[in-house]
Every structure is written in C-alpha cells, then in structure tokens.
C-alpha cells in the first residue's frame, strides 16, 4: 500500500511540477517580453521627445554644431543610438561610424512617416545593424511646423539576455522543486497511513457513542489538516448532541411555562368574570332590590370589567412585542417633560388613595432617544404599582438624574417593600408579591413584565431596589442623544 501510494503521489506531483514549470516559463517569457519591450519603447519615446525639444531651437537657429554635441553626448552615455535628420530627410547628426553617402537616414520609410507627423515604433533589423533592434522615429516641431525628425534604435540583445537568464533561474528552481518533491513524497507516504488508521478506529468509536478520543498529529500538511478537522468535527458533534439535549430540556421547560401561562391567564380572567356574572345574576334575579345596592354592585361590575380590559390589553401588548409588531417612534425627547406629563396624569389616582405624589427634576438633563408614549407607559406602570403597595398617607417621589452617560428615572415609594427573595421575581409574568396582602390583589402581575420588554425595545434597562417595611425604588435608564 505504501509503495503504490508513494508511486501515485510521486508521479502526480512530478507531472504537476513539470507542467507548472512549462506553463510558468511560457507565461514568464510572454510577460517579461512584453513588459521589457514596453518599458524600453516608453524610454525611447521619452528620450526622443526630450531631445526633439532640445534640438528644436538649434534647428531653428541652424546651430548644427550644438545639435551634433547634444547627440554625441547622448550616444556616449546610452546603449541606444540616435540620429537627427532635417525636414528634407538628410542626416544632420548621428553616430560618426555610419557611412551614408546618399544622405539617407537609417530606415528611410520610418523617417518619411515621422516627417509626415507620425510616431513610428518598429522591432526588427535595420541596414546599419546586424542584430535586431527596437527603433523609434518621431517628428521635431519648430514653431508648430515639422522641422526634422529623431530616429532612435536600441539593440534587443540586452533585453533577450535578461529574459534568458530569468528563464534559466525558473528552470533551475523547477529542478530543485522536483528533488524536494521526491523527498516530501517519501515522507508523506511513510506517515500517511498512521493518522488515517487512527481516524478509522475513532470513527468506529464515534458510531458507538464515544466522542472522547482524538487523532494525534504533528504535521501541518494536508493529512495534519484532515486530522485537525476530524478532531474539530468530533468536538462539534459532541457539542451538538449536548446542545440538542439542552434544547430538548428547554422545550420541555417552555411547554411547562406555556401551560403555567395559560393556567395563570385563565385564573386571572376567571376571577373577575365570575364576580361580574354573580353580580349581574343577582341584579337580574331581583335579589337586590334597593337602587343604592344595585348601583353599588354595578360599580363593582364596572370595576371588574375595567380590570378585565386592562388584563386583555396587557396580554395583547406582550403578544405584539413578542411578535415584533410594536411600532416604535424613536426621537429626541426631554425626559423631564415626559415625567411631568405622566405625574400630572396620575395625581388624581394618588390623591384618591390619600397619597402624596411628588416630582423632583434634575436640571440641564441631556435629551434622550426614545418613544414618548412607551416611556410614559413605563412611568405609569411604576407609579400605579407604587400606589397599590403604599399605605395611606404615604409618599411617592418621581425623580430624574444622569450617571454613566445615561439618564435615569426613579420611582421611590414608602410602601411595604419587597423581600430580597421575591425581588428578582417581580419581572415575571403573573407574579404577585403576596396574594394574601390586600394591597396586591388588584394587579394582574403583567405590568412589570411589560416594563422590562419595553425597556429592551428602547435600548434601556429596568431594575429595582427594595427595603422591606420601608419602601421600594423602581428605576429605568435611557440612552442619551450624542452631542454633535
């Protein structure tokens, strides 16, 4: 097995590397051939344009000595060679070794086109050079008219030599890669069997439900990655099975909570409905004869009806929030104005219960981001709860302040307080502090659940503190508008 696997790997990698070397060499040759020629063409064009600007004035002034000096300097310091011809096509400056008895410039066709205003680029042979050259011919303008032409040629041998040297380096690198590949293939063929065998054995254990074993690996090659991935898969499978067990437990718990919710909702609805039914039957049966008693019972029926209406509205609000159907109109608000509006609305309720409802505003509070109606609903829930759990002659204070970059609102009462054990449960649905306390019977146990849901929607936070026998503090915070 090792020998066959080694042969397959070795031959595969060898063919791939040879194919890759051939492709890379071809692409390399094409790329650098175009790249070097393109760079050199630009250089010749730039040099020709610069020289044409320099000699333009000399041609105008017929200062041929200066032209000759300029071209000699250029030809001395550059590999390329340059000639200057006048508008008649005669050489007026160039390499001294060129014998040109008939006064024709090298490659007269290119010069002719240049004198007609073209920029000519050509690769190939010219009569004055045995080797191929890259040549450029471009016009010289004198006061807007063509006064001559520049002819520049550069041997291609230096570029071809550079490309050949680079190709030799690529081929040498390929040979080295083949040698290295043979060594790597031998190493892989020797070490590939062990982790695969381990993976097979551990897979059988996983089929039996054992997810504790892991594949041991030390390499970072493909086999090592396979072993690492297999170990990761084993951990994820183990975690997934555990999560499924937890989700199953959660679903069981949710079913229990749903049953409890239905039972609590049914109980909360049944109690006022039973009371309403009893009073109405008593009135219809003529059990109550006096008008005053009839009015008294009708007021009780109305009170229970309103309680039912409030309970149903609370259930609908919770349902809409859970379904994400609550429309939130967030904007910049002055929290003090919202608090004052809510307090003024609730003062008659406090006075009816012989309670003092006061407002303490902190000056210069920054504006908050929130929904005015929802914030007012939170304040009303807090104050209504405080009224319900504060004995007569008590005091309720609503105050605002800022801390940790958030605006806080506190509803402080002098009520009966909540024990530390019960305090975390007040945010649960249908939870009542103590059904035996007369002050707690009117509530549905949904108000604070609504508060918590609303604060999450508004990006705020709700919390409570309490001191049994002394009172409670129910608070919420809202994000502050960022200052520009």
From TrEMBL:
Reactions it catalyzes: ATP + protein L-histidine = ADP + protein N-phospho-L-histidine
Topological category with respect to the lipid bilayer: Multi-pass membrane protein
PROSITE patterns: HAMP (PS50885), HIS_KIN (PS50109)
Subcellular location as annotated: Cell membrane
Enzyme class (EC, first level): transferase
Stretches assigned to the HAMP domain: 190-242
UniProt EC number: 2.7.13.3
GO function terms (MF aspect): ATP binding
Pfam families: HAMP, HATPase_c, HisKA
Keywords: ATP-binding, Cell membrane, Kinase, Membrane, Nucleotide-binding, Phosphoprotein, Transferase, Transmembrane, Transmembrane helix, Two-component regulatory system
Spans traversing the lipid bilayer: 12-32, 169-188
Domain Histidine kinase: 264-482
Protein name: histidine kinase
Protein species of origin: Clostridium tanneri
Highest classification ranks of the organism: Bacteria, Bacillati, Bacillota, Clostridia, Eubacteriales
């Amino acid at each position: 097995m090792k020998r066959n696997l080694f042969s397959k790997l070795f031959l595969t990698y060898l063919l791939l590397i040879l194919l890759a070397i051939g492709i890379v060499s071809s692409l390399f040759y094409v790329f650098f051939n175009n790249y070097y020629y393109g760079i050199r063409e630009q250089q010749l064009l730039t040099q020709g344009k610069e020289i044409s600007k320099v000699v333009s004035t000399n041609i105008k002034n017929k200062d041929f000595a200066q032209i000759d000096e300029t071209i000699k300097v250029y030809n001395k310091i550059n590999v390329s060679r340059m000639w200057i011809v006048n508008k008649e096509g005669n050489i007026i400056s160039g390499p001294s070794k060129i014998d040109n008895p008939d006064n024709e410039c090298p490659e007269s066709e290119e010069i002719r086109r240049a004198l007609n205003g073209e920029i000519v680029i050509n690769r190939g042979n010219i009569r004055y050079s045995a080797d191929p050259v890259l040549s450029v011919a471009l016009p010289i303008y004198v006061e807007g008219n063509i006064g001559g032409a520049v002819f520049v040629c550069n041997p291609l041998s230096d570029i071809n030599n550079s490309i050949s040297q680079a190709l030799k380096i690529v081929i040498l690198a390929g040979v080295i890669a083949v040698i290295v590949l043979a060594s790597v293939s031998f190493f892989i063929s020797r070490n590939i069997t062990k982790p695969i065998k381990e993976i097979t054995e551990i897979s059988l254990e996983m089929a039996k439900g054992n997810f504790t074993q892991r594949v041991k690996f030390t390499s970072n090659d493909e086999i090592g990655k396979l072993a690492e991935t297999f170990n990761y898969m084993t951990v994820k499978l183990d975690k997934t099975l555990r999560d499924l067990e937890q989700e199953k437990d959660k679903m069981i718990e949710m079913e229990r909570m749903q049953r409890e919710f239905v039972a609590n909702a049914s109980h909360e609805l049944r109690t006022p409905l039973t009371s309403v039914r009893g009073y109405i039957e008593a009135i219809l049966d003529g059990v109550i004869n006096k008008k005053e008693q009839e009015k008294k019972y009708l007021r009780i029926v109305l009170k229970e009806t309103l309680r039912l209406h409030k309970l149903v509205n609370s259930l609908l609000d919770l349902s809409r929030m859970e379904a994400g159907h609550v429309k939130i109109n967030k904007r910049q608000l002055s929290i003090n104005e919202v608090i004052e509006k809510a307090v003024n609305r609730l003062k008659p309720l406090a006075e009816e219960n012989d309670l003092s409802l006061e407002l303490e505003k902190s000056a210069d509070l920054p504006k908050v981001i929130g929904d005015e109606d929802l914030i007012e609903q939170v304040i009303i829930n807090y104050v209504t709860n405080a009224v319900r759990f504060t004995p007569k002659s008590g005091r309720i204070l609503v105050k605002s302040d800022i801390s940790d970059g958030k605006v806080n609102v506190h509803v402080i009462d002098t009520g009966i307080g909540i024990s530390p054990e019960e305090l975390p449960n007040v945010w649960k649905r249908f939870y009542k502090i103590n059904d035996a306390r007369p002050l707690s019977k009117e509530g549905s146990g949904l108000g604070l659940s609504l508060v918590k849901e609303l604060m999450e929607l508004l990006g705020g936070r709700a919390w409570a503190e309490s001191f049994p026998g002394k009172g409670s503090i129910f608070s919420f915070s809202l994000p502050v508008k960022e200052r520009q």
